[in-house]
Amino acid sequence: MSQTETKNQSGTNRDIVVSVRNLETTFHTKVGPIKAVNGVSYDIARGETLGIVGESGCGKSVTSYSLMQLIEHPGEISGGEVILGGQDLLKLSENEMQEMRGGKMAMIFQEPMTALNPVLTVGYQMNEQIIKHMKVDEKEARERAIEMLKLVGIPSPEQRYENYPHQLSGGMRQRAMIAMALSCNPEFLIADEPTTALDVTIQAQILELIQSLQERFNMTVQFITHDLGVISEIADRVMVMYAGTTCEMAETQKLLTSPLHPYTAALIRSIPKFGSRVEKLETIEGSVPSLFELPKGCPFQNRCPNVSDKCKESKPPLEEKRPGHQVACFHPVNL
Amino acid sequence: MKPILEVRNIKKHFPIKKGLLLKEVGSVKAVDDISFEVMPGETLGLVGESGCGKSTLGRTLIRLYEPSAGQIYFKGRDFCSLSGDQLRKERKNIQMIFQDPFASLDPRMTISQILGEPLKVHGVESPSERKKKIEEIMTIVGLKSSYLNRYPHEFSGGQRQRISIARAMMLNPELVIADEPVSALDVSIQAQILNLLKDLQKEFNLTYLFISHDLSVVEHLCDRIAVMYLGKIVELAPRDKLFSNPKHPYTKALIEAIPRVGQGKKKMRQSLGGEVPSPINPPSGCHFHPRCPKKFEGCDKIYPVLQEVSQQHYVACDLYKGEQ
Ligand SMILES: Nc1ncnc2c1ncn2[C@@H]1O[C@H](COP(=O)(O)OP(=O)(O)OP(=O)(O)O)[C@@H](O)[C@H]1O
Ligand SMILES: Nc1ncnc2c1ncn2[C@@H]1O[C@H](COP(=O)(O)OP(=O)(O)OP(=O)(O)O)[C@@H](O)[C@H]1O
Ligand SMILES: [Mg+2]
Ligand SMILES: [Mg+2]
Q1: What ligand is nearest to the CA atom of residue B32?
Q2: Which listed residue, A78, A96, A245, A274, has the most CB atoms within 10 A of its CB?
Q3: Distance from B123 to chain A by nearest Cα, in Å?
Q4: pLDDT 10s digits, A187-207
């Protein structure tokens, strides 16, 4: 039985590796608190890839940072649970979390320089992590690091191993960071826009690498991207976020071909389609509400073509409207 | 019409130093003998694999890096000979949107300081005038003015990207070098920003050098497209010609590799085979030959010249030797 078949079975016998329950993350800013993540729940099964999409600022990165517990003051995880392999990560000490990060769970950051130290060479940084989590000696760590740099398609890996981050191109920095995240065979990988700075051929190579590691080690992946083309190639299921909440979740093909939420539908229409050049790209009218002044009711109401009085009164709950297809909307499309 | 930007045989080589004495043992030929022109109001796209030298070229054009060789003419004037005040004045007209918004925004400055600074430097004295201009630009790039007193780290990746676009637009430049300006953005904002770039262009007759790895975006926005491979331009053509009739085997492979919605999850299509070569020691002859499906005898010997194969369509590949 192929990977995909096992994965696509919904229901009872999925082997859940990651379970996020009502996650809430709040930033206490000078002008008041904002809930960047406002009650998000999802599960990811072993070997599965969950794609997360949504407009800029909707909380994708903050969700990921929360899972890794990298939220810094004045932010805090203000509620919920993050269960990895039966353990609630939010109950671990910082020391225990450090053991996890880079080892059992790893993250590819949206901006490589958040993960790379500018004053240390790429090789030094990789070695340190490999020695810590794989318990190997320096020589083995170096070999492993160079092997990983090669796997992510960095040419002359031995020389690049000696480079400082600023000596690499944008895409090479991103790949160096990917190499670092994958170097200790994580059980759970969070990839936050991992291929944004990469051209299509190298993007393909990285996605293939992630998929092959996934097949070999049954790695579980949370994959954030704004590129629905990439989503359709890599994700088994997709979660769409809007203003800190989940608005839709379904199997990838179902979501892309018959979205239920008006927001998802609009998102799909706004992709520049290769080969069909238009004067103006379609956009979604209006803008995301500020997290300071979230309206009562549905957060998408001010931009929604289907809006009614009900939407302004109460917030639609996330409900299963088709088998395996959840949506938070009173007036779904395509139903 | 005269070109607004003329680039003649530009090179940028970075020395590789080794050992305690930092002896020079070679060089990275990041940009290696590139020439092209950009007309006023035009958008020239620059595409190519990661590490091929796109950002280095952009940074060299605004003289953030001094070129190792070659000339740059901006509106007919030798840009490389300028210094001091003259350079600062001319630079105002050429702005760059940097690839990594995280690294290019000063973490200790608020957004209003970041956007106000270029105005200050270029003599907009009145704080209320600065404020007005800042708020105007913020609205254009889709950021709320309530964000003005926040610091870069308080924003999401895409929001930061829009801040750096706003910063580049503050001084009404004539030429904007945009290095991957939309790749960190989700599709709906990407569409807004691309539309915005187009509107600004129409309104102010802006010229863009648009660096991107995303061919669908380039196709949407650019009039002409230059394809780079390992420090050199391998193909240069008007958009429609490049997409309907790509000549260079590398360009063909790039177009082939675009992910498209609706193809479903499957094994990724075979990416370009072979090792990505390194600009530290590029392959002999045509740099692309080790990965080229069409290579023939001689490709590993001499680097092919960039020649015009049909009107305005240039390609550096010996498959087309003698055409035209
Ligand atoms: N340190 C912080 N302080 C205050 N607000 C923050 C902080 N970090 C993030 N935010 C806010 O939280 C919201 C969610 O940000 P997040 O980075 O998760 O967005 P995202 O979905 O990853 O967007 P993008 O696609 O642009 O990367 C944004 O509105 C952002 O301004
Ligand atoms: N400051 C520097 N010192 C040494 N080498 C450098 C420096 N900047 C760039 N390089 C090298 O020059 C080459 C081209 O880099 P550049 O950043 O121009 O690539 P790029 O085409 O922009 O790639 P990407 O799409 O990944 O951003 C790379 O091999 C890189 O390592
Ligand atoms: Mg993000
Ligand atoms: Mg670059």
Answers
A1: 2
A2: A245
A3: 32
A4: 999 999 888 767 777 788 888
Which residue has tokens 């517990």?
A69
CA of B107 to the centre of ligand 3 (A): 17
Mutation target for B interface from A234, A277, A283: give the one with most B CBs within 10 A.
A283
> Which residue from B55, B56, B177 has its CB within 8 A of the most atoms of ligand 2, so it is best to mutate?
B56
The size of the A-B interface in CB pairs under 8 A is 205
Mean pLDDT of B98-118: 86
Q: Which pLDDT band holds residue B268 (cuts at 50, 70, 90)?
A: very low
B307 and B315 in contact (C-beta within 8 Å)? yes
Residues of chain A contacting residue B194, judged by C-beta atoms under 8 Å apart:
272, 281
Segments making up each domain of chain B, as ranges: 5-93+171-259+270-320
pLDDT of residue B276: 66
| Chain A: closest CA distance from residue B102 (Å) | 7
Q: What CATH number has the domain spanning B5-93+171-259+270-320?
A: 3.40.50.300
Query: Rounded to whole angstroms, what are the CA distances from A308 to A216, A267, A303, A313, A330?
Result: 49, 21, 12, 9, 9
Closest-CA residue to A274 (of A227, A312, A316): A227
Q: E strands along chain B, which residues?
A: 5-18, 23-38, 43-48, 69-74, 77-78, 94-97, 175-179, 207-211, 224-229, 232-238, 307-310, 313-315
3-class secondary structure, A90: helix
SS3 A238: strand
pLDDT at residue A147 greater than cutoff 70: yes
* Adjacent-strand bridge partners of A108: A191
Please report the ipTM that was assigned to this predicted complex: 0.80
Q: How far apart are CA B60 and CA B79, in angstroms?
A: 11
What are the b/e assignments for B125-137, b being 16+ CB within 10 Å? eeeeebbebbbeb
Percent of chain A residues past pLDDT 70, beyond the cut: 93
Residue partners of A93: CB distance under 8 A and separation at least 6: none
Query: Ligand 2 pocket test: which of B22, B55, B96, B218 has the largest number of ligand atoms within 8 Å of its C-beta?
Result: B55
Q: Do the chains contact at A201 and B271, CB–CB below 8 Å?
A: yes
Residue of minimum CA distance from atom 3 in ligand 1: B154
Q: Picking from B12-16, B220-224, B228-232, B279-283, which range would have the lowest pLDDT averaged per residue?
A: B279-283
